[in-house]
């Protein structure tokens, strides 16, 4: 519980000092009203609760009676409301699979570069042929 001005006790689970630090990290913020701080903390709690509940209901969590990271990442990828979290909650892949993806991208990139070089050489050949023909 956090104690705010006015002597009122309001329940928030998140540490207000951390939220204040995060809010002040924005260059546009010079001072933070206690009520704004509390409302931001409460809104964040509600958002996290909604994300967790949605992920649990639409994921495999019900089967295992647990919420997993893959449930959260699947929600971030599939649900339009949470797609802004896709970079923060990427799907986990095995390191070996990632290395194979990198190798494939590298091979595809080299093939693409070779094609570009061939096109440049063809353009130069055409320019030389045109000069010779004139």
TrEMBL record:
Region of interest called Disordered, as start-end residue ranges on this chain: 105-134
UniProt feature, compositional bias: Acidic residues: 111-134
Protein localization: Nucleus
Annotated keywords: Acetylation, Coiled coil, DNA-binding, Nucleotidyltransferase, Nucleus, Phosphoprotein, Transferase
UniProt keyword Transferase, yes or no: yes
Residue ranges of every copy of the Transcription factor CBF/NF-Y/archaeal histone domain listed in the record: 13-74
Principal location listed in the UniProt entry: nucleus
One MF annotation (Gene Ontology) recorded for this entry: nucleotidyltransferase activity
Superkingdom of origin organism: Eukaryota
Record flagged with keyword Phosphoprotein: yes
Stretches assigned to coiled coil: none
Positions of transmembrane segments: none
Xref: CDD domains: HFD_CHRAC1-like (cd22924)
One Gene Ontology cellular component: CHRAC
GO biological process, one term: chromatin remodeling
Protein role: Forms a complex with DNA polymerase epsilon subunit POLE3 and binds naked DNA, which is then incorporated into chromatin, aided by the nucleosome remodeling activity of ISWI/SNF2H and ACF1. Does not enhance nucleosome sliding activity of the ACF-5 ISWI chromatin remodeling complex.
Subunit structure, interactors included: Heterodimer with POLE3; binds to DNA. Component of the CHRAC ISWI chromatin remodeling complex at least composed of SMARCA5/SNF2H, BAZ1A/ACF1, CHRAC1 and POLE3; the complex preferentially binds DNA through the CHRAC1-POLE3 heterodimer and possesses ATP-dependent nucleosome-remodeling activity. Within the complex, the heterodimer with POLE3 interacts with SMARCA5/SNF2H; the interaction is direct and enhances nucleosome sliding activity by the SMARCA5/SNF2H and BAZ1A/ACF1 interaction. Within the complex, the heterodimer with POLE3 interacts with BAZ1A/ACF1; the interactions are direct.
Name under which the protein is recorded: Chromatin accessibility complex protein 1
